Queue: 2 jobs
Job 1
Amino acid sequence: MDAAFGDALVRLLPNLRRYALSLARRPDLAEDLVQITVERAIAHAGTRDPAQRLEPWLFRILRNAFIDMTRRQRSEGTRVDVTENPDILSTDGTAVTEARLMLQATQAAMARLPPDQAEILTLVCIEGLSYAEAAEVLGLPKGTVMSRLSRARLALAEALGIK
């Protein structure tokens, strides 16, 4: 990263914060989005076309980060801090045992899947990567990632007797 890029990035931070706040509507999430944007911009500074303006490129990174964050939150469900709500901790031994058995069965079923299916399930469902991120990691088109993930989910459901 050259000094001019860094200076321009710092100069655009207020603009990024405003845009992030307009998307997230929460200051804490907006700050997270700005941080993600800066990290990604620095990591991919070499791929940026210097003939193009920096601001739209940064806004596109921020918007994509917001979309990724929104999708991840939807798939994760509601997060609850057990230290703030200790009464939600499960003490039902049957539920704990059933959850452990299901986890063991899922791990065993994943071990029997073809390596490409197990890998895509791990990246997207366990590690929480978006389809685009998983495609980048695997060096595949996003559509291929989506179809492999679909086949992997179906195979896993069949192996677990869910489908």
Job 2
Amino acid sequence: MNLIHILGLAALLTVSATASATSFVVTTDAVVGAVGATSEATSDVSSSFTDDKIVLAARDDAAAFVASQGEIRGVRLEAALQHIRQQIPALHDDDMQLAAAILSL
């Protein structure tokens, strides 16, 4: 191999290593952000609704919702989600995060 080929190979390896590291950082940031959002929803809901009868009654429906990846939406879960959003209007979490928070109660 001549010097130009060796330098080209070294540059290609450097670029691919940088791309892999960047991809890893982006993926890690996305996972950490999702966990943080779920944790925030869990703490907001669990601190506010630990003795709320509407929310506690929705635990079985919340479990079915989470286990089915959102396919099963029970009536009690729908009532609890509506109740939670009425009580905390500034809450912008999605249904899956709130269902997970209900399960943590």
